[in-house]
Amino acid sequence: MSKALNMDLIYCFFDAANMHRWNDHLRPIELTELDKQAHKMAIAWMLGKFEETNGANINWTELIEYSMFSFIQRLILTDLKPQLFHKIRQERPNELNEFVISEFETAVPNCNVEFKKRFVKYLGGKKTSKEDQIIRAAHYLATSWEFRLIKDLNRSMYGIAQTERDIELELMAHSGLMGLRELVNKSAYGFVDLFGQLRFQQRWARTPRIPKTTVLGHSLLVANMVYLNNLDKKVGKEQIYVDYFRALFHDLPEVLTKDVISPVKNRISGLNKLLEDYEEDMMESKVLPLIPAQWQDEFRTLIYDPFGAKDNTDAGYDIKTCDLLGAYIEADLSIRYGVGSDRLKSSRDELREKLIERKGIDSKGLIERLDAMTV
Length: 375
What we know:
- This protein is an all-alpha fold and 375 residues long.
- The protein has one domain (7-372): Hypothetical protein af1432 (Orthogonal Bundle), CATH 1.10.3210.
- It has helices at 7-15, 33-53, 60-76, 82-91, 93-107, 113-124, 130-150, 160-172, 178-184, 189-196, 215-233, 237-248, 254-257, 262-267, 271-287, 296-303, 314-337, 342-357, 363-372.
- Helix 3 (60-76) packs across helix 7, helix 7 (130-150) runs antiparallel to helix 8 (160-172) and helix 11 runs antiparallel to helix 12.
């Protein structure tokens, strides 16, 4: 049986870094679909935790997978304006779903059978569950955050007021979620805003690359790979939740320190330890206060030691492998797209050697599949 952790599917997710949002508007920074989906999942975590606090039972595995399915659908239909997408979905849903499935089968020909079955079922479902509500609300909150960035630059553009009203109406439609009320009223918005700042931080500082992936987009790529690997391993729901969000949040401290590249860390004796201590102090003083006190202990388990260095866990090891694999994909594809400095090429080669030596995930097979792909 084909594995869920499949390079064709990974490439689909990565390619979202080439998909620009609001590309018919003036933008202060590049806004990509990969970053938007990552931001959405951080917001979905907050909304889910608020619902749990309010007594709801959240199926986190379904929430993660439904979000992944909606991401895949968006990847295939990304050129459609939202208004047109919603109109077609209402008037010709079966044809739309058939098109999405056909395109997905072409892009990921060896998809895991069970994963594909659930994807097809999701497309045809009514999407009325609490998890679906959370995903849609998170989607519009992330869109609202983007709109705040571009609004002033586009104030005189035709239709901008209607766009703002449309976003507000979509948010109001989900006002039954406790977390949405908390976030819209700004009592917990600081976390959303801070996490979104990772969209400003580019990976591979001072190294020309295309696409210019961000810390936030990389985090989602790693989290999705970790989830797919856990499907292959058939781990329990609790570990799926913990591993996914450990991976999604693994670079969150970089919003406080910036992305310090490995050569700098390794060249300066003691810098790694100094950064770790500083990051923990700053996380405790700047980030933890942005989330409700009753979640803070759990959040610490997600953000500290994501790679299991202190307890040498298999899960942490796999997250690190996915982190390295994400970096390899970023370097390799940039070189193949035609932008590759000597530094990037040497880093790509070093990552390849490391990955092939690592156990557990079949990094060698994934890399060989990437080598064979036409990009």
